[in-house]
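== Protein entry: sequence and backbone fold ==
=== Local backbone shapes as whole numbers ===
==== Amino acids and backbone structure tokens ====
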Amino acid sequence: MATSDSGPHPTACQCGCLGLGPALSEFVKRFGPPGEARRHFDQARVEFLKGLRAVIDARIEEIARQEECRGTKVPVE
């Protein structure tokens, strides 16, 4: 939490969270998972995002193939 210049008493944050943001960050830091578990969760998040990227890439390829299969309009005189 932010402190004022006049002493160690906490003051509200200037961001509008009324000190909740720093308090929540401190809570997570103290009661969150240990370092080893946190590394596993971080790696799992990366793998999840890679999977999501693969799904999006596959969908893009599918749409691109559908557009290639469509014929082109040729004006007939």
Observations:
- The two ends are 77 Å apart (CA to CA).
- The first helix runs from residue 20 to 31.
- Residues 1-32 form one domain.
- The chain has two domains: 1-32, 33-69.
